[in-house]
Amino acid sequence: MRILPVDPIANASHEALANFLLECRGIAERAERPQLVSISVAVDSLDPLAVLESIFEPGELHFYVEKPSEQLAVAGAEAVLSFRASGPGRFAACQAFIDETLAHALAVGAVDGAFGGPQFFTAFTFLDQPGVDEPFPAVQVFVPRWQVGCRDGATVATANLLVGPGDDVRPLVERVWRAHAKFRVFDYEHAEFPADAVAPVRRVEEVGGAGRYREAVASALGRIGSGVVEKIVLARAQDLHGEGLFHPLRALNGLRERFRECYAFSVGNGAGASFIGASPERLLRVRAGRLTTEALAGSTRRGATASEDAALGNALLRDDKELREHRVVADSIFRRLAPLGLQLEAPARPVLRRLANVQHLHTPIEAALPPGVRLLDALARLHPTPAVGGSPREAAVPLIAGLEGFPRGLYAGALGWIDARGDGEFFVGLRSALIAGKVTRLYAGAGIVAGSDPEREYAETELKIRAMRDALGA
């Protein structure tokens, strides 16, 4: 990506913007192909979710994620460029799209600010070959027409556009100017939320029937006992049938406030379906040459009192079954990333990570990123981890669809963003819901290992799925 020495604030006029876009058109004509032009401006504090609410369109791609505990939030919508792929080569295909786009990209302004420059918002489904009728492809990546990002108290608004040889820049000038004016002085008071945002739930239906999950756990324990797999993760799904269409952004404000340690998120497919949730699990982050991941497996409920909460946490730290489940995940991460030359560092024993309604065993894992290794190289080796699939992966993952009885889609998928420097962050699509028309499907899962009890695993998934039901008013 080429960064041009232009200050969009110092030259904030229609004429200066038109001259700049004419310069970009000249570059496009010499290159004989359109250029992605990214204009970033530092602005006063904005709420990306509120901005997204104000312009949300079901027929446009969108991406939103917020982690309040880390003062991180970003939203983008309306694709200026997008790409889809499927199959085992989807990570390489995604990287090729990013590389090709950046080879013909021009950027100005606060490129080094919070989420400055073009962001590649990306969603990988759990499987690399989802069914033809599923709402999301194996990978969906797009550069938004607009984005607003906040990190550590700084906010940057970005407009992205394509400028091709011979393009009339006048409508582009007007579009960028209007966006610039809106983002610099955003009117929260007159940002309207749709009147039909709340759809009363008429019926709650367990996908596959009331006994399906317990039967699946019992079947999985048989496979574990026979040595086919060491661990397998099984999910439940519940369908909420509404009286009307449900707005996908309606629940997010509550999710981000209740689960401040989690990633509150929404991903739209541009065809009316959205995948939302509050995920506790970072899959991978790359920032300033350093890779961060984590093992998050093994869990128990929160206590009603401080004493009960501490007792439950201490019991979890000594629970043989939960520790074995956690160790499978941590060992797999080390094993899968080793071929990339990463010198991974982690504490010897897991610690507790407490969320609003559940506490987990947690092991943070870090390493310096070797030269030539990129974020998607590591992601391709990690996804799906044993925390959402099982171990060995090659044996466990093919069993999941038959045992669960429904397609996962983006549930337990990898969602996140990559910037022009190659930095980025991905989280796992957990504690989530697929909103499509009048039906909202909720997902929650649990890891099954030797010693698992079907009733206890069902109770764990109920604890997780209840949080989404509550957020959706069901």
From TrEMBL:
Transmembrane segments: none annotated. Keywords: Isomerase. Residues 212-464 form the Chorismate-utilising enzyme C-terminal domain. Its EC number is 5.4.4.2. Gene3D superfamilies: Anthranilate synthase. It catalyses: chorismate = isochorismate. The keyword Isomerase applies. Belongs to the isochorismate synthase family. NCBIfam families: isochor_syn (TIGR00543). This is isochorismate synthase. It comes from mine drainage metagenome.
